[in-house]
Structures are given as C-alpha cells and as structure tokens.
Amino acid sequence: MVRDIVIVGGGTAGWMTAAALVRRLAGTGISVTLVESAEIGTVGVGEATLPQIRYFNEMLGIDEAELMARTSATIKLGIEFRDWGRIGDRYIHPFGAHGERIGPADFHHYWLKEQAAGTAQPFGRYCYPIVSAWNDRFELPREDPASPLTHFSYAFQFDASLYGAFLADYAQKRGAKRVEGKIVSADLDGESGFVRSVTLESGTQIAGELFVDCSGFRGLLIEEQLETGFEDWSDWLPCNRAWAVPCAIGGEVGPYTRSTARTGGWQWRIPLQHRIGNGHVYCDRYVSDGDALDQLMTSLEGEPLADPRKLFFVAGKRRRLWNRNCIAIGLSGGFLEPLESTSIDLIQSGIENLVALFPEADCAAADRDEYNRLMDLEFERIRDFLMLHYVATQRDDAPLWRDMRNMTWPDSLAEKIETFRHRGAVPNYASGLFQPPSWLAVFIGQNIVPEAWDPRVDRMADEERSAHLERVRTTIADAVERSSGHLAFIKSYGATF
Ligand code: FAD
Q: 27 alpha carbon to ligand 1 midpoint, in Å?
C-alpha cells in the first residue's frame, strides 16, 4: 500500500490536493508531504471558478461565509460573453437552466416556436441567474420547487493566492507536512522508472511511493523526468499568451465574470471584493504583444494596481496524466484557456479520480488506464465546449474569427453542432461538466438557430404556450426584484470591505 505521498508544488493545485488527501485519507496512516519554492512562486492567476468548487469546499467541511471573507470573494452566477457571436451581442452562460418544464418537450423548443411567432422575449429573460446577474442581485438558492430560486447554482470569484493560503493552513493543521525548497533533481528506479525521491538545492532528499506533480506548466516530474509527452491542441485553440493586470474597483461589481471578444483573442474581467482582475488572452499570430497590452490597458475601468504580467501557454494535455507512480494535477497536466474557468475544476476532477482509484504501491496499470481515460474524456469535452465559442461566430472582421469559422472541427464537436442545428437537441452527458443548459446558452447566445423545434410543441395551443412563457418570465422578474443587491448580500455573508 502507498504510505508516503509527495506533492511537488504549492500553487492552487498542490494545496487543493494536499487538503483533499489529508481529509479523505484521515486515519489511514498515509503521510502527505508538499514541497514548494517561494523563489519560483506560483502562476498567480485563476480567480474565476465553477459551482463544483462548492462541493469541494463542502467535502473539506469549510464554512462558505468564512471562505468568502478570507479570499475576498464575490458571487459568480455565470459568464457574460460580449461580442462573440457578432459585435454588439451580449449573453450569459448561466449556472442554471432556462425556463422550466411546461410540457413534454424541453423548454427551449417552446421558446423557439414563440420566437418564430415574433412574441418571445430574449432567451435570457427566462433564466433566473441571468436576470439576477444583470440586475446585480443575489440570493442563496432555496429548496422550494415552486420558486425559480431552486433551479440554479453559483460559484466564486476570489483571490486565488488567498485560497491557496487558506488551504495550506487547513492541510497543515490536519497533518500535511510543508517543505520549503527548490527541487533540483529526481531519482528514478532503474527497472520500473518510478520516481523514488526528489532532491532539494539544500541536498535534502524526499522519498515517496506516489508523487503528485503540481509544479505548474513545466511539469517537473511528469515531463522533465518521465518524458510523458504533450498532446498539442493549438490547431484547435490557438491562443497562446495572456497579459494579466489587477485594477482598482471601477464599474459595477456584478455577480458574474465577463469575457469580451477582441480582434486576436478575448479579455476577462473578474470583480473581487477589493479589486478587479483583468486579462487579455490572445494568439500572437493574430495580434502583437504590444497591441494586446494596449487593448487591455485602455479598457481598464480603474487604476492599475500592479505592472501587467505576460504568461505563455500551449493548449493541450499530457499524453498520460498518470504515468508510472506520478500523477500530474493542475497546469503540469495540461491547460485549456480560461474562457469557461475550467482549470480549477480539472484539478478537482484529478483529485476526485485519484481518491476513487487510490493505488497500491505498484500503481497497477488498470488504475492508471482508468484514471487517464476519465481525465482524457473531461479534457476533450471541455475542449469542444471552448471551441464552440470560437466556431459559432458570425464575426468576419479579423483573421482570427475567419480562420476559426473555416477550420475543420473535431468530429465530436461537429456532431453536436449538427444535431442542434437539425432540431435543437443538446448534448446530454451522464456526468461531468457542461450539461445541456450550458450548451444551449452558448448555441442560442451565439445565434445558432435550429431548423425545427420538437414537434410535440405543436400540440400546445399558441395562447397556452405564450401564457406559460409569460408566467415563467414574470415569476423570475418578480423573484429577482425581491432579492438582495449582490454587494449587500456579501456584506451580510462574507465581506472584508
Ligand atoms: P502554479 O501556480 O504554477 O504552482 C506551481 C508550484 O510548483 C509553485 O508552488 C512552485 O513554487 C512549485 N514549483 C515549481 N518548480 C519547483 C521546483 N523546482 N521546486 C519546488 N517547487 C517548485 N483557472 C481557473 O480555474 N479560473 C481562471 O479564471 C483561470 N484563469 C487563468 C488565466 C491564465 C492566463 C492562466 C495561465 C491560467 C488561469 N487559470 C484559471 C488556471 C489556474 O491559474 C491554475 O490552474 C491554478 O493556478 C493552478 O496552478 P498550479 O498550482 O498547477 O501551478
């Protein structure tokens, strides 16, 4: 049985892994040691999350209000996409479904018919988290089937370094050992190729049976030592750089992240309690570093609080996320641009799958294969969903958008778009990220109109359908009207300002 686990790296990935392992393996006698280097530091970005993080925090037994206070967090009800379908377009991918069940077909089919009749309101008006986000309001979900407050979830926008520090404190109080120092080499077993130990600059050697590589983009063990190889997906997701800069609060602190499409990429805006996180993700083939920086700095809504930082990356993943006795979690395992805030969620999946397939000391091939299969599936689904934003565009104003429209899509994505275009059917996975409401929000938000709706919609009289839709819309509008302002909510819940 594995007795000693060594985690290499103390960024968000390292400390999330350490916190989860000490919690989930408590009482087993397994030791968890984390090595990090203050001199190397962390990537220092990663402020927007997905609702799944709440399950992770809950599993750790963390009080949510305390977490919000300690990480300067705001609420996130979804992501607003500006200028993606066409310049001037604006929609939100919400953490919740549009509408409710009003007949045998899914809600959007009734909306499609209402739209064709010219009497529909914009699709977002039938979705509680969207109306709430745009009106800058928030209320916790309720367990009342009659209320629109039941049908949504939320996430956080937080200071990732404070989240890391919070988890470091949590993990160390429960037995994780932290070692400060720079790893300069690793010792591999001559026969199995397993990592046996890592050596610090000081000469200290740290041995283990299972190594979790959380060393960031470089992949200190998974790539530099084990030469696992990288699946490069940059033909499909060409953005390869980002500028990131925080600024003082300016404009609204809404409960949503914003993504605005630019000529050679897109820009993020993430409001926290004490500042706004901003960044420009772009491809250097389509916009120069200087122009990308200018576009970012001229659009800030407050005074910059630091010098802008440039980050480099390549879209893709390791060929095997678990190789020999080393599991890559976080940026060392792969990276897909932060358009849908998926990286922290991928860390979470990596941890969950590790706990579920927790190995014996020989790290059996069957466990490794299953882990890699599950993680590959997750990466591929996210890749397809991110690509949808680029390919479902009508923009023709810049080479990036023309190239993305005309590229050959992965079959898995082409099938999904075709199926939706045909009759409005939406991908429905048994589990994992991005269920039908997410695909639907982007399809409709980016103007993909199905050729037909579900024929069962035609069984409902026009007046009845219109009345149902109007009732859904007004119920949502009324509920939003009665809820608290977003800042008032966080002041009462977890504010530090
Ligand atoms: P890092 O933060 O790089 O940590 C690596 C650790 O390894 C550090 O502690 C470092 O000191 C240590 N280390 C490295 N080498 C050595 C060595 N030789 N010896 C000892 N220690 C070593 N994710 C989201 O979910 N939402 C977002 O909004 C989001 N935005 C992003 C924007 C950009 C531009 C980028 C690039 C990423 C974004 N991410 C986002 C991803 C997110 O930042 C990362 O997934 C997250 O921070 C985890 O990083 P990490 O811990 O894997 O790596």
A: 30
34 C-beta closer than 6 A to ligand 1: no
- 288 pLDDT more than 90: yes
> Is residue 485 within 6 Å of ligand 1 at its C-beta?
no
Domains by residue range for the chain, with CATH? 4-73+158-232+315-380 (3.50.50.60), 96-152+408-486 (no CATH), 241-312 (3.30.70)
Q: Write the residue with the smallest CA distance to atom 12 of ligand 1.
A: 9
Pocket test for ligand 1, best of 76, 284, 343 (most atoms within 8 A of CB): 343
Nearest atom within ligand 1 for CA of residue 10 = 9
* Residue that the structure tokens 């968890």 belong to: 32
Cα(188)–Cα(168) distance, integer angstroms: 28
Edge-to-edge strands of the sheet including 205-207?
A: 183-188, 195-200, 205-207
Nearest to 92 by CA among 137, 120, 130, 126: 130
Find the 408 Cα to ligand 1 centroid distance in Å.
31
Can you spell out the DSSP letters for 233-299?
A: -TTTS---EEEEEEE---S---SSEEEEE-SSEEEEEEE-SS-EEEEEEE-TTTS-HHHHHHHHHHT
* pLDDT of res. 325: 98
CA distances from 355 to 124, 292, 349, 360, 439 (A): 38, 41, 10, 12, 29
464-479 pLDDT, tens digit each: 999 999 999 999 999 9
Residue 48 Cα: closest atom of ligand 1 = 28
The ipTM, to two decimals, is 0.99
Distance of CA 405 to the CA centre of its chain: 24
Closest atom of ligand 1 to CA, residue 347: 45
Separation CA 431–CA 44 (nearest Å): 30
The answer to whether the CB of 25 is under 6 A from ligand 1 is: no
Active-site positions read: 76
Residue 152 CA, distance from chain mean position: 17
Q: Is the CB–ligand 1 distance for residue 340 below 6 Å? A: no
Do residues 92 and 256 lie in contact, with contact meaning Cβ atoms separated by under 8 Å? yes
Q: Report the pLDDT value the prediction gives residue 395, as an integer from 0 to 100.
A: 95
Other beta carbons less than 10 A from residue 113's beta carbon: 22
- Segments of 41-126 assigned E as strands: 74-76, 78-82, 90-94
Q: What is the enclosing helix (H) or strand (E) of 7?
A: strand 4-8
Other CB atoms closer than 10 Å to residue 280's CB: what's the count?
27
